[in-house]
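Lab notes, practical 5.
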Amino acid sequence: MEQMTEDEYVTVSAVNEMVATYFDNNSLFRFVKVKGEISNHAEWNGHHFFTIKDSASVLRCVIWKSAVPIALSFPLEEGKEVGLLGNLRFNTKKGEGQLIVARVVNLGEGGESLELKLLREKLKAEGVFDIEHKKPIPKYPKKVGIVTSKEGDAIRDICRVAHDRNPYVQLFLYNVTVQGASAPASIVEGIRAMDDRGYDLIIVSRGGGAREDLAPFDDEQVVRAVYEAKTPIVSGVGHERDWTLIDLAVDARFSTPTYAAQGVFPDVMSDIRRVRQLEDGIRRGMENALKRRLLLLESRRERLERFSPEAVLAKKTERLKAAREELDQAMTALVERRKHRLEVLIARMHGLSPTAKLVGGFGYITGPGGPVSTVDSVNPNDDIFIRVHDGEIKTKVLAVEKTSSGGTNGGEG
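Output from the prediction step:
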């Protein structure tokens, strides 16, 4: 094979521009008349976007806001069979053909839509959708089987939510085909295999897509596999607006894989955080209550000690001891004062005592008539006695002489 240089390659944009130019210049793509069943209709800012399909193919269509008053005279509804008139253009950004619709004609209900409606009525009549048949969803599932594609966004979304809300749950994937002709049989096989393993719950899921991409989940065998399962099954298929027959048969339907995971996995981590906060609050409350009780107990203990007989006796004993000491001090002081006073009186009395005077060289004289207090009490030659402090002296009166008045009466002693 001849080696090509880089300059010989063209860009994707260039190729798409060539295709778009071919569409624009080819009269076959002008005023195209095509019929099909409406699917995936959405309105945005006055524009209408949808696809039309048959049993094998789909074609993207748009009615621009400016063309709506002329092009559209009735509501576009899912499954409605319509005829379209428009120009076929090539969208260079998306790399796909698109019909720019100029007129819409109502051809009635599409074949696929009618077929699906008949199947729904049949299954409903058999009780497949009855609420009495639905099993309760476990509040805290431990082992959960997931029936979906390992390549899709659904499994990643489910795992992410499970990890954030309950990392302790065990997840088991059964990889299946979720789109195309082989998808129904693959999904049925996955549901039955998971049901046989005795898990707490099964999630059947796939991400969003066109309405025809969700067709496997409208398959009768898939619906019956859900109905016959012993294990509770929830669905999370497509977008919020999408409904399939499996959604009517499951025990709980969620609009997306993320919502399905949020619905079956309780937020255990939040519960754990709340429990820990409650534990901390209870612990702090108990500690505060214990501190208050200890303070109250200490206060009462001190009060009890103050007013207890032992405490009262101890206080009275202390007061008595202090009073005794005070009395002893007062008695000692009184005794000292009285002793001092007595000593003063004794000294004073001693100074006035005749005996004390005798010690100072004086004598106590007695005569025949008793104490001699005047010269008139004795006569010459009388015997007199002179008492001194250490004895008595006997003598005679030699003479008597007055010193103040009268004469001297003398005599020998």
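Observations recorded by the TA: The two ends are 197 Å apart (CA to CA). The CA atoms of residues 147 and 204 lie 5 Å apart.
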